[in-house]
Every structure is written in structure tokens, then in C-alpha cells.
Amino acid sequence: MKRIVVREGCVVQAFRFALDPNAAREAGFRSHCGAARAAFNWAVAWVEAVWRQRAAEETYGVPEDGLTAWRSWALPALRREFNRVKHTDRRFAGWWAENSKEAYNTGPANASAAFDNYANSKRGQREGARAIPPHQRREEAVHRRQGTRTQVVLG
After folding, report:
1. Using the 8-state DSSP alphabet, how is residue 74 labeled?
2. Distance CA 49, CA 46 (A)
3. Residue 94 and residue 130: Cα distance in Å, rounded?
4. Where are the alpha helices (DSSP H) in the chain?
5. What is the mean pLDDT of each run of 10 residues along the chain (155 residues)?
6. How many Å from the N-terminal Cα to the C-terminal Cα in the chain?
7. In angstroms, rounded to a whole number, what is the distance separating the alpha carbons of residues 110 and 44?
8. CA dist., res. 143 & res. 32, Å (int)
């Protein structure tokens, strides 16, 4: 983790807050977390679908120039495609308007970062342990991960 360098004459102050939401607010928190998770899972599936398609085409002997085109995992591309499908995809059409758009934006942003980490790791351009390809997130894993990253106490 990066250390903060404090300039002379400056003061750094941090606060930690424990949330104690009522039942309705807790449901809202969980809904926003679910929206981010659903958008992340959608982005991973959207990119990996082409990976699987290309692998299948290669087994059929399709030449490189005839393979399905790669899909970009760059954040602008993921956001553009998500904005295109959010009104029609059955995973989002009924409830996407109930949450902040930023809740959904964190999903593709995290997926884009995960794909970048994986690609950089595969090329040897990333320090640390070898990254695995991004995968679908389950609800329990997200709550556990959020609990370790933040000091938010629900209930």
C-alpha cells in the first residue's frame, strides 16, 4: 500500500465511522452492492463469451482472420455496452433504476481493472502473485470482501 507523504505545515486527519442503518437503509445498501455485483458479473460474462467463442472456433480449424473479433475490456467500452443493454437485459431491466448509476458503474470499472491485472500478470508486467482470470462473484464473497476492505458495520 502506498504511503502518504505529508508536506511540511500540513495536517492529515482521518475518521472512521460505524454505520447503524435502519432496515430500509440496510436493504438499500444491499441493493446497491447487488447492483455493482450484477454489473461486474455481466461485464466478465460479456468479455469471456468471446474468449470461449474464439476457443471453440479454433478447435474447428477456423483461421485467425476468421475468428470472432475480440471485445475490449477497457472501461469506456464496457460502460458503453452496459448502457446499451441495461434497459433490455432481463437481469437489469426491472430494477436498474432503483439504484444509483454509480453503483452500476463500479461493476464494469472493477471488471476492467481485473482484466488489466490479469493481462499484465500474464505478460509478466505485474508484481506480486500471478493473477487469475476474473470470475463471477457470488453474494457471500462480496460481503466478506467488503467487510475486510472497509469498516462498515451493518446491523
Report:
1. S
2. 5
3. 38
4. 23-59, 75-85, 101-122, 139-149
5. 81 85 89 91 94 93 93 94 89 83 92 93 86 82 46 39
6. 30
7. 10
8. 12
Please report the pLDDT score of residue 154 as a whole number: 41
| 8 A C-beta contact, residue 124 and residue 118 | no
Q: Phi and psi at residue 43, in whole multiples of 5°? A: -60, -45
The contacts of residue 112 (CB under 8 Å, 6+ apart) are: 43, 73, 74, 75, 78
**The cell 488489466 sits on which residue?**
116
Long-range contacts of 140-149 (CB under 8 A, 24+ apart): 142/33, 142/36, 142/37, 143/33, 146/33
DSSP state of 68: P
Q: How far apart are CA 114 and CA 108, in angstroms?
A: 10
**Residues 6 or more apart whose Cβ sits within 8 Å of residue 91:** 38, 42
Residue in 149, 142, 144 with CA at minimum distance from that of residue 31: 142
- Tell me the C-alpha distance between 144 and 81, whole Å: 29
